[in-house]
Design goal:
alpha+beta, Beta-Lactamase, 3 domains, five-stranded antiparallel beta sheet
């Protein structure tokens, strides 16, 4: 619509200018013809009244004074030439600066001679203005040519140009308003036309495999839009079915992997238990004087393996259990200090930005997060390290409370960074790889976030953020 208005305005501008020029040209041609005809009639009347013989040689005498009277009456200057093109008489007292020569060109005489109506019009420019000059024969009483009448005509377009500029200014104002109106109409019409497409586009942008997606319902959509909506709704149904199948498949696969991991971890302590029992059966002698010590040693071995199996079961149970949404209002600094009390390593240091940073969390789950991160940091430091160091810090980060655990251990290789939070993934020779997965599960349950930065061979920094609240009110 805007383009059509622009094209129309340009076309009308061009047509208007062309039309004004045509009007000017027709006006000047008609005016020159009228003046020429009036001057010819005055010349013929003068020839009829003269007492001189009507010859070319007497034209100067015949129009000695009359040429000025005719020029004044007609308000138009003219010249009289002989048939050979020599100037005989001019109504202008001085013609040196005028585009009038003392002798006509042979080309003009030839054009005049071959012309059917014995008239020739020359068009040219003089002093920046359009200039026309007409040439016709002057005849005697017997219609025999005795001279040439030259009528110079200067086109004055100043008035018409002024009118044209005023008209174009008004027309430009009208089209400017039409252009603004076209922009407004184009905007509202496009919004009206595309509202259905925008609704479909918004729904497509919100389409997510991890949740249930809504279908599109529009009142009285167009035929094409209705087909598009039907296709989208059908796609949503198929997507829901596919997502359900995928989720079921992933759950089954996860449980299969978990079952394999559980079986593998349980088999590890069962083997030494079996060997211990078999060895006890083969070597048991009630009369052996050292039987008491041997029974105690076998019992200790079995108890250790049973404890290992119990810790395995507890780890899997803790990972599978969703943290309870207690939402206690607690001092994070105090709870983190409490969690660090169970560690005896002297190289574990703690700093806090403030003495009290408040958040709504579960005390047990927060302790579990801190202890798991610190355990991982301890295990990441080799035994032969000269100066092991673990720094636990608590600080405020905007509307969040930030808990950082930094170590100078072996770091995490680039290839393992994407898998570090996956269940059953571990880079250690022992353990089940459930600690960081459980930490991530707890943190995300409380609308927090966890990330890490690491440099292989230099150390790792884990950063946990939870939403914080204002200070606790003291109850009197």
């Amino acid at each position: 619509m805007i383009l059509l208005v622009l094209i129309a305005s340009v076309l009308i501008l061009g047509v208007t200018i062309y039309q004004f020029r045509e009007i000017n040209r027709d006006y000047h041609e008609n005016r020159m013809e009228r003046k020429e005809e009036q001057i010819r009639q005055s010349i013929d009347l003068t020839i009829q009244k003269t007492t001189y013989p009507v010859t070319t040689e007497n034209l100067g005498l015949i129009f000695k004074e009359e040429i000025y009277e005719i020029a004044v009456v007609q308000n138009m200057n003219f010249n009289i030439y002989s048939l050979e093109g020599e100037l005989i008489k001019s109504s202008r007292p001085k013609i040196e600066n005028d585009p009038i020569s003392m002798c006509l060109d042979a080309e003009i005489l030839n054009h005049l001679d071959v012309s059917v109506d014995k008239r020739y019009v020359e068009r040219n420019k003089a002093a920046g203005d359009q200039y026309q000059a007409s040439y016709t024969y002057i005849a005697d009483r017997q219609f025999k040519p005795i001279g040439i009448l030259n009528l110079p005509y200067f086109e004055d377009n100043s008035f018409n140009d002024k009118e044209l500029n005023e008209f174009l200014a008004r027309l430009g104002g009208v089209y400017f308003l039409m252009f603004l109106l076209a922009i407004g109409l184009a905007y509202f019409i496009s919004k009206y036309i595309t509202r259905s497409l925008e609704a479909i586009s918004d729904m497509m942008e919100r389409t997510d495999l991890t949740r249930r997606n809504e279908k599109i319902h529009l009142e009285k959509p167009g035929e094409e839009i209705e087909k598009l909506i039907s296709s989208y709704n059908a796609m949503i149904d198929e997507l829901s079915i596919s997502a359900a199948k995928l989720a079921k498949s992933e759950r089954e696969q996860a449980w299969r992997e978990m079952a394999k991991q559980v079986a593998h971890e349980i088999k590890n302590p069962l083997t030494p238990m079996r060997l211990s029992v078999q060895s006890f059966q083969l070597k048991f002698d009630p009369k052996d004087p050292n039987i008491t010590e041997k029974v105690a040693e076998y019992s200790k071995t079995l108890i250790q393996q049973i404890d290992t199996m119990s810790s395995i079961a507890s780890a899997f149970s803790s990972f599978a259990e969703m943290p309870a949404q207690q939402n206690e209002t607690l001092n994070v600094v105090k709870i983190v200090k409490l969690a660090l009390d169970i560690f005896n390593e002297e190289y574990i240091h703690f700093i806090a930005e403030e003495e009290e940073i408040i958040a709504k969390l579960d005390r047990t789950q927060l302790i579990r997060v801190v202890t798991n991160l610190v355990k991982n940091a301890i295990q990441a430091i080799p035994d032969e390290h000269d100066s092991p160091r673990i720094l636990v810090s608590v600080a405020i980060d905007g509307d969040m409370v930030k808990i950082s655990v930094a170590d100078n251990g072996i770091g995490i290789e680039k290839d393992f960074e994407d898998k570090i939070f996956e269940p059953k993934f571990t880079t250690k020779t022992s353990g089940m790889g459930l600690g960081l997965g459980m930490v991530k599960n707890i943190v995300e349950t409380y609308k927090g976030s966890i990330n890490f930065t690491s440099q292989p061979g230099k150390g790792t920094v884990f950063c946990v953020k939870f939403p914080r609240v204002g200070r606790m009110k003291t109850i009197k």
